[in-house]
Amino acid sequence: MTDEFYMQQAMREARKAFDEGEVPVGAIVVLNDKIIGRGSNQVEKLNDCTAHAEMLALTAAFNFLGSKYLMEATLYVTLEPCLMCAGALYWSKIGRIVYAAKDEKNSYRRSTGEANPFHPKTRVEQGPGEAESLQLVKTFFAQRR
Predict the structure, then answer these.
(1) Which reactions does this protein catalyse (predicted)?
(2) Full residue range of the structural domain in which residue 70 is found
(3) Mind listing the pLDDT tens digit for each residue in 19-41?
């Protein structure tokens, strides 16, 4: 499987969030070519400011594995993680993070600057799907105005 395939799976989660009136962010966790966790934003649904797609996907992956570490796993997420999610990703020791679109307003970089908040062995890269992710977010907020 490719990064493009897995990012499309994360985009499915983002579209689900969009359809439910949530900020459209989706995430999946992949280990050994198998999706072991999925999440879409559920902040409004759960009245929980921590119910970000990444957090929910991580929790599902931890439960699937019965482990708190994801050293060999990859997180695919449609929008660059925020500082809270970056902290959770640090503690998970996830092996790789692939995000579709930068988030200049709310990403971890806004608080950390150039400092890396992830585990030293975690690889972080921008992957495919940037235009689709940004369009979905822009459409969501345009409909709210």
Answers:
(1) adenosine(34) in tRNA + H2O + H(+) = inosine(34) in tRNA + NH4(+)
(2) 3-131
(3) 999 999 999 999 999 999 999 99
